[in-house]
Amino acid sequence: MGGVFISYSQADRECAFELVGQLEEQGVQCWIAPRDIAPSADWAAEIMDAISAAQVMILVFSASSNQSPQVRREVERAVHKQLSILPFRIEDVLPSKSLEFFLSTQHWMDAFPPPRGAHYARLYSHLKTQLNSTQLSSQPAPAASAYSFDAAQLQHIERHLAAYIGPLAKHLVKSAASRAAGIDDLLARLAGELDTDLERRTFAQRCREQRVP
Questions:
Q1: Predicted structure pTM score
Q2: Angle, alpha carbons 86-88-93 (nearest 5°)
């Protein structure tokens, strides 16, 4: 996974990949779809994993990304994971209400009008203050879980998590179970995906009923 996750709309593909090329020449590891998604992989799951593993999200912001449901979902996920977001504004447009809610406190970097060479250089300088040398290098793969979960347990937990976050629960339970050292660790990891203390407590309590000892 990359230290920097690139969020963009298809209309801005050329700019997004040009940006990645400039950053990677400077040693910044980037993650961008579809380049970094395996052909047979689950697209949504790969994106969620990449956002979770990143240290910074760069949002290539334009009129097109402003209206993109996919971009909005990626930004929402990044905010939920408390990921630093840097909007790289390539057009003089204001964020829609749905994006403004998530981006109102973020530092915006204007990158217009073209050419963008100087803007890419400023972006790299800004990133250096957020990423240390370890974060700029490849991240080691997480250790596999030494705990073997019962399939019925995981289904029980997935069902309760889905009541809060929908279909994404299946992927999150699978991912957390591969890393968790036991049931308490698993529930703690998954509870962190919820927004309030009440939701986290209720989720954990319900998961411990019936199936979970």
A1: 0.65
A2: 120
